[in-house]
């Protein structure tokens, strides 16, 4: 494995006390600083924008569980073949579900997993938004409502899918590499 986090040569900015504290919190909670954060560390403004949006979407109040949000991240990243996000968020699905096989199914093909009707509807919507965003119609939102999602949940599904589509494209463009530790987590 290479020591490079991305294919770009961007020198990290001087880290503010807030960023140092955030990275220390990552070390404490995760045992590592995710490479995506280190990749963004060349510009504190971009890093803060990324982390603020990520933390709100993935950890904030929502009708979606943390596992469901991670499942969206993995399903979208699987469609986009995002190596970084599949390694990182596949580990999160394994951890949150307590089921390594389920995590692997989600990474390889979510349709192979034993999903509830609610989860299937959520992931099919996220995939359609990834592959054919211009073809989302009221029937797609109605299917989510029928599966038990409220309009706020639909917003959260769409926002999470959109965030990971953006993240996947940045990761692909810069050849972002996941932390080696992700590969062994929750197995």
Topology:
Layout: H1 17-30, H2 35-40, H3 44-59, H4 66-79, H5 83-97, H6 100-109, H7 117-131, H8 138-146, H9 151-174
- The helix-strand sequence is HHHHHHHHH
Strand content: under 5%
Query: How widely separated are the two ends?
Result: 21 Å
Mean pLDDT across the residues is: 97
What is the structural class? mainly alpha
E-strand count: 0
What fraction, in percent, of the residue positions are helical?
55-70%
Question: So how many helices?
Answer: 9
Shape: globular
**Which radius of gyration do the C-alpha atoms yield?**
17 Å
Q: Low-confidence parts lasting 5 or more residues at pLDDT below 50?
A: none
The largest sheet, given as strand count, sense and whether it forms a barrel, is: none
Account of the 3D structure:
The structure is a single chain. This protein is 66% helix and 0% strand. It has nine helices and no strands. The chain has helices spanning 17-30, 35-40, 44-59, 66-79, 83-97, 100-109, 117-131, 138-146, 151-174. The model has no long low-confidence stretch (mean pLDDT 97).
Q: Tags for this entry?
A:
single chain; 187 residues; mainly alpha; 9 helices
In a nutshell, what does this entry contain?
The protein is mainly alpha-helical and 187 residues long. It contains nine helices and no strands.
